[in-house]
Amino acid sequence: MIEFHLDGQSGISPYQQIVTQVRHALRLGLLREGDQLPTVKDVVSRLAINPNTVSKAYRELEHAGLVTARAGVGTFVTATMSDDTLAAQRSLRAGLERWLAKARRSGLDEETIEALFQSTVRSSAVQDIA
């Protein structure tokens, strides 16, 4: 089962952080069709946030067709990535892990690595459009 974590320094609303974490878990194959998300009550007690925040996140995920709520039972994943996509990700992840190790050996800290990665992704997307 997924465990949510909130970053109070991120500038991103707590409900959006929950939505993003579920989406990432789906993309990475950490959540599969039929898996149950933590109950609203469990998330509220673990993260000390308002129940409406969790409910809003779950509603957005349901509206996107990624989960479904079953009254009295819980919220379950209804969409997942294909096995082919997950296999491709495993290969790409291995290459990325080698790159990260090289970046750390070069003396880059985590914040610099993240900034470099994000700027490269953005500039690559712009080049793909052109």
UniProtKB/TrEMBL annotation:
Protein species of origin: Nocardioides luteus
A GO molecular-function annotation: DNA binding
Domain HTH gntR-type: 12-80
Protein's UniProt name: GntR family transcriptional regulator
Keywords: DNA-binding, Transcription, Transcription regulation
Listed SMART domains: HTH_GNTR
Pfam families assigned: GntR (PF00392)
CDD domains registered for this protein in UniProt: WHTH_GntR (cd07377)
